[in-house]
Amino acid sequence: MNINSIQTFIEKTWDESAIPALKDYIAIPAVSPIFTADWNSAGFLMEALKLAETWLKGLALENSRIQILSPEDRTPVLFVEIEASGPANQESLLLYGHLDKQPPARGWDDNKGPWQPVIENDRLYGRGSADDGYAVFAAALAVKAIQVHKIPHGRCVILIETCEESGSRDLNYYLEVLGDRIGTPSLVVCLDSGCGDYERMWVTTSLRGGIVGELEAKILTQSIHSGASGMVASSFRIIRRLMDRIEDSKTGEILVKELHGPIPEKRLAQIQKTASLLGNSLISNLPLVEGAFPTSLDPVDLIIGGTWKPTLSCTGAEGFPPLDKAANVIRESTKLLLSIRTPPGADTGPAAAKLKTILEKDPPYGARVNFNILKHAKGWDMPELPPALETRISKAASLCFGSPACFTGEGGSIPFMNLLCETFPGAKFLVTGVLGPRSNAHGPNEFLHLPYVKKLTRALSLIIAGP
Questions:
Q1: At how many degrees (to 10) do helices 44-59 and 19-26 cross?
Q2: In the prediction, which pLDDT does 86 show?
Q3: CA–CA separation, 99 and 26 (whole Å)
Q4: I need a labelling partner for 131 at 20 to 30 A (CA). Which of 51, 78, 235, 394 fits?
Q5: Three-state DSSP class for residue 159
Q6: What is the distance between the alpha carbons of residues 283 and 303, in angstroms, rounded to a whole number?
Q7: What is the rounded average pLDDT of the residues 42-49?
Q8: Residue 1 pLDDT > 90, yes or no?
Q9: Which is nearest to 23 in space by CA: 447, 434, 440?
Q10: b/e string for 293-313 if b means 16 or more Cβ within 10 A?
Q11: Domains identified in the chain and CATH numbers
């Protein structure tokens, strides 16, 4: 296997073909369905898939079939079948990515924007660049590099959905409909995760679950003059008291035991190794305002806090007028959107029910309180990798990055990972991605680190090629 030749081919194809196509993709406002009611008539999701389809056809994968499926009332998917070129007993792979995007967000630099692709300092800026537009290009190019160099490979299936940012609501349908064509993969590769830095290949070992709900406290039938303060409790103070039931506001510690879960010893050892590698960069890579500091100065505590501890965040609010229109009144109600991250071991169904009971029981001042659970999903802990596969991954990482693969958890959620585990119980899983320091998925100035994605594509190519 000529590693240098594979590297040259991948870098050249990224530069001359994949990056221009990815820039065109960034310009498409393919916002996920949950954020735009007219997604179907707008046609941007389909436009993104067709762009990828055109690029794939130009790549000319051998023995492949490329198809867009778009049944009525379902978000469309791109499905690619690549037949094996080696012995019949070679493994079968399923490679996953998505092309729907988060909303634009505010705060982009003046020379950048969500639908405005900009390359600066080896970074491709734009919404969807790293989350997760790169995935289809990396997956297909990894296979093509093997084919060009006449290296045998097993059967590969690439599945690209357009509903991941909306909870992958149609993925189960497609896994059933395409079940016979997908077959029984022995390795599932998910390219929708992160990396601790841009110097090493990172494998995601765990993902947190989540509970999202609307907490509302209503005390009045209508707003009244603030001169009545002291006679009527403000809805904001009521909601503060309710949140004190589930979180210690001084420490951030979650007070509901159902939201906690144990950390396996192997994961703790991986956390300690990751902390020794990343050290203070875990803090320096946080965009803290001057003078601010994180929840801990200990890298181990920071990683545990961001991967295996439950946390509470308020991600939205209603009932507050803009500051320039805020009258001297006591508002009738306050509504907050709460996001609770949970460790992989927590069962989010019963935990969500427990939260509802705690928040709604005996409301302060007899206020009308409601916690509306919008969604919940369990976390994920990676099934044990066979030693041979772990060695193969680390060997590919060493050849492409100069050091073995690093194994660590992620603080975000990929709810469909449990679905994939249930659908393919005999498969092994490789979850990786390009969302590294400051890449800022879901926020302003999202970027794809171009040297990193080229190395990751090359590592993926070697992993697909097998031992």
A1: 170
A2: 73
A3: 10
A4: 394
A5: strand
A6: 11
A7: 98
A8: no
A9: 447
A10: eeeeeebeebbbbbbbbbbbe
A11: 3-207+380-465 (3.40.630.10), 210-261+308-377 (3.30.70.360)
